[in-house]
Amino acid sequence: MKICQQCKFENPDSEAVCQKCYASLSGVESSDSSEITEEFFAKIERKDKITKFIHTALIPLYYLICLPLSVMCYLKIKTAGVLFLIFLFLPLLYWFSIFKPEAMFYLQHMFEIDNIDEVEISDWYYTSSRIGGYIILAFGIFAVIRISVSVLM
Hints:
4 helices; mainly alpha
């Protein structure tokens, strides 16, 4: 495969002129399309690793924000146990929404759908589950901060 230097169109190795822009392909070496494919998938894999790292890093960030506030509230009012439940439970929901949306789908619909193992989950569900995960984490931070401000003030 010869890639045109001007328009980046992929031409067969036998061509001397680009089929799209008619530029000369002399001096252009033929490239192996498998190298291009490998490079493409390597970029996608790197992007997926970075995205997974960011999604995973949000959980410790959540705990760094909420743990000190929860402990201060608990020390001031011993009945602030609900705050600890919010604090502990919401990152778990976030993690399932981001990394295991299939499990969330099965939990939501296992009593409604008879053949749930045969159901194919839509891309829309995966996207909405991820957005829901972000909202859950943001709500947790907001709730802990709001309760902490009202208790500590």
